[in-house]
Predict the structure.
Amino acid sequence: MQSTIVMVNLFGAVALLLFGLSLVKDGVTRAFGSRLRTGLAQGTSGAVRSFVTGLIATLALQSSTATALMTASFVEKGLVRAQMAQIVLLGANVGTAMTAWIVATGVEWLSPVIILAGVVIHRMSRSSARQGAGFALVGIGLMLLSLDLLSVATEPMRESRALAAFLSMLDSAWPVAVIISAGLAFASSSSLAIVMLVLSLSSAGVLSAGLTVALVLGANIGGAVPPVIATLGSAPPARRVTLGNLVVRGIGCLIALPIAGINAEWLQHLPLPRQNLPVDVHLVFNLVVAIIAWPFAGLLARLMGRFVPDEESGETGPRYLDETTLDTPVMALSGATREVLRVGDLVEAMLTRASNAFNNNDLGELRDIGKMEKQVDLLQQEVKIFLSRLGRDGLSAEDGRRSIVIIDYAINLEHMGDIIEKGICEQIGKKVTNGLKFSEDGYQELKSLFNLTIDNLRIAQTIFVSRNADLARHLIEVKVDVRHMEKRSAERHLERLRDGLLQSLQTSSLHLDMLRDLKRVNAHIASVAYPILEESGLLTESRLRPEA
C-alpha cells in the first residue's frame, strides 16, 4: 500500500511538471508566437545568430521539441538553410539544459507568488498577449511546485529495498538504464521532465553518480525522438533536420556513456552542489556536444541530404485535392484551402529567398526561384480545375462564395510569384552581377519594405483561414502604409539624385522598379481581405470622396 502511494505521488508530480510545461508553451505562443516565429525564421543568417536564436526560443517555449518542429517547417519552406537549422537545434538543446539548471537552483519557494501573479494577470487582462503571459507564469509556478512534490514523493524511496535492488541491477547495466530513460523521455515528449525526475532520485541518495549520468544521457536521446516522429509525414528537408539532431545526440551519448563514471567523478570535484549532478551533467553534455558538432553542421546537413533524398515523384503536384470529396463540398473546400495555403507558403519562401539574396548579394538564394514559381503556377491551375468540377447541385450560397474566394486568392498568389520571378529577382540579379550598391538610406528603405511584405503575406495566410475581420481591416490599413512608404521612398530617391549621390545615380532604375514591384505584391496580398470586409459591411464601393 505504501509503495502504491509513493508511485501515485511520483507520477502526479511528473504530470504536474508536464502540465506546467504545456502551459508555458501555450502561454508564450499566445503572447509572442508570431514574433518568435518571425525571429526564428530571420535569425539564422549566421552560425552564432542561429545558435542564440535556438537557445532563446527554447528558453521562451520551454520545449526543444517545439523549436525543432518550427525550424523543420522553415527548412521545408526554404526559409532557413539546412546547415543553420542544425545549429539552431544545438542551441535548442543547450536551452532546454539551461532551463533544467535554472529550475534546480532552489527557487521553488517562489511558486505560490508566481502562480498568483499569473492568475491576476490573466484575469485582469483583456488582450490575448497578456493573458498568454499570465498562462506562462502559472505554468512556471506549477513547474517549481512540482519539484517540491517530486522531492517529497522520492523521499520514502531511500528505504525501499525493492527499488535499491532494481537500481543496483541498472547500475551494472548502463545501456539498459539509457534505454529505460530514453523510453520515458519519449513517452512524456520531454527530456526536461525526466531530468527533473532523475534530479529528485539523485537528491534522495538512491542513485550512484555513474547511473545518474547514464539516465541523463538516455533522457537526451529520448527527447530527440518526438520531433523525428512528428515530421515523418513532412517533406524530406524537414525530416533531415530532426533526424540530424537525433544523430548528433545519439553519437554524443555513445561517446559519453563508456566514460560516464569518470565524467561523474570529475563533475563532483567541481565546486558545484552534489545534489545538482543531473542538471550539471545535462548542461555540460549539451554544451560539449554543441561545441564539437558546430563545425560539422554543414557536413551533417549534406549527409542527411544523402540519407533522406528528395522525392522526385509527386513533390510538385497537389497533395490535398482529393477527387473523392467532390460530392461533399465542405471536404472539397477544406482540401482546396489547404492546397492554396501551401501555395502561399511557396510564395513566402520565394519572397524570403529574394530578400536574402538582396541583403547578402547571394545569387545562390535565387537558384530555385524559377522551379518554385512553376510549382505555384501548377498548383493554382490544379485548384481552379478542381473547384470548377465541384458539383453545383446542393451547393449552398456560402460554399459557392467560399469557392470563389479560394480561386481569387490562388490567382493572386500566382501573380505574386510572377512578379517575384520576372521582376524582383531579375532586378536583384542585375544588382549582384553588376556589383551595384544602393545608398545606405535606399538600402534600408527597400529592406524595410521587403520585411513588411513578408509579414503581410503571413497575415494574409491567417486571414484566409480564420476570416478574421479585425485582421482584414489591419491588412488594408497596412496596404495604405505600403503605398505611403513607396511614395516617400521614391521622393527621397529623387532627392538623392538631385544631390548627385553616385550610388543613387547607378541604381536609380533598380530602386524605382523594386519599389513598384513590392507595392504590386502588397496589393495582391491585401486582396484576401476585401471579401471579408465586404461581408462584414466594412467596405465602401469607392475611395472617391462624395461630391459636395
About this structure: The CA atoms of residues 445 and 489 lie 7 Å apart.
